[in-house]
Write a structure and sequence with these properties.
mainly alpha; globular; Probable blue pigment (Indigoidine) exporter
Length: 299
């Protein structure tokens, strides 16, 4: 497949993740964040393990649990803490710093060069998310800010290490391993820290099915597939599609208002995502494009 196709398929994942807020607030019982995270990860991971029939070898268990922690257990736990203690816009803006963190981590762990265009696109994306989501009455809580930054760093580390550690299996199997590991970490924590769930309604079950099968199993398979094929900086910029989708769904499904400033923020985010793909394009691909132009003129 072409790089453009890989980018579009990978972008589907964060675009669908944007529905998480709507589904969580409208379909799931409130007050059970870690339990909901465990129920989102573990059943989906076990189902994928049954479908793929591929267990991680013993030598990979340490890496799998570390990745499952970064990409799911630690990330989702910190995400919920930030969401509870900060306005949603502030939490999402802190999360968008992930793109900058990926650029720095990829330099240290993968030797990827830091490109000025990629940094500029990441900064523009953060500004766009802030315009899209932060209101004038936003308040800052130190614990919430620390959790938001920690969640962004966790996902950034998981993205870069998922690129560094590529097992010889399909993206679906790699997703199954990590989801199961993340769920196994979250489940005992939920049992210790949170009360027992009330009886679940049909709406609750439908929400969990959506978040587990679509919002976790399918989308993370696309995400890890993209991580293996696309540059880490380019992949991380695609994550900014999530807040745009969330705002659009709130506008369409919940009748929430959409101001001019928010519209401007959405345009800036989309532009930064596009610019980030170009700025993070491999040097070899840029060289080929440059070589083709003189030949086209000569023809």
């Amino acid at each position: 497949m072409s790089r453009t196709t890989d980018i579009l398929l990978t972008a589907l994942a964060p675009a669908i993740w944007g529905s998480t807020y709507l589904v969580t607030t409208e379909a799931l019982p409130a007050g059970y964040p870690i339990t909901m995270a465990a129920l989102r990860a573990l059943p989906a991971g076990l189902l994928l393990l049954v479908l793929t029939r591929c267990l991680p070898p013993r030598a990979w268990l340490g890496r799998v649990f570390l990745l499952g922690s970064f990409n799911f257990a630690l990330f989702w736990a910190l995400l919920f803490v930030a969401a509870y203690r900060l306005p949603g816009g502030v939490a999402a803006t802190l999360g968008s710093l992930q793109a900058m963190m990926v650029i720095l981590m990829a330099r240290g762990w993968l030797g990827t060069p830091i490109r000025a265009g990629a940094v500029a696109a990441a900064v523009a994306g953060v500004v766009g998310v802030a315009l899209l989501l932060i209101g004038p009455d936003a308040a800052l809580d130190p614990v919430g800010v620390a959790a938001g930054l920690g969640g962004a760093a966790s996902m950034a580390a998981g993205t870069v290490l998922s690129r560094k550690w590529q097992p010889p299996v399909s993206a679906l199997s790699f997703t199954a391993w990590q989801l199961t590991a993340g769920g196994l970490i979250l489940a005992p924590i939920a049992l210790i820290l949170e009360p027992a769930l009330p009886p679940l309604t049909i709406t609750n079950l439908a929400g969990l099915v959506w978040l587990g099968l679509i919002g976790a199993a399918a989308t993370y398979a696309l995400w890890f597939r993209g991580v293996a094929r696309i540059e880490p900086g380019a992949v991380s910029m695609l994550g900014m599609m999530s807040p745009v989708t969330a705002v659009m769904l709130g506008w369409v499904a919940l009748g929430q208002s959409l101001s001019f400033v928010q519209g401007l923020g959405a345009v800036i985010v989309l532009g930064s995502v596009w610019a980030g793909q170009r700025a993070n394009r491999p040097s070899a691909e840029i060289a080929v494009v440059c070589e083709m132009k003189p030949r086209a003129r000569a023809a």
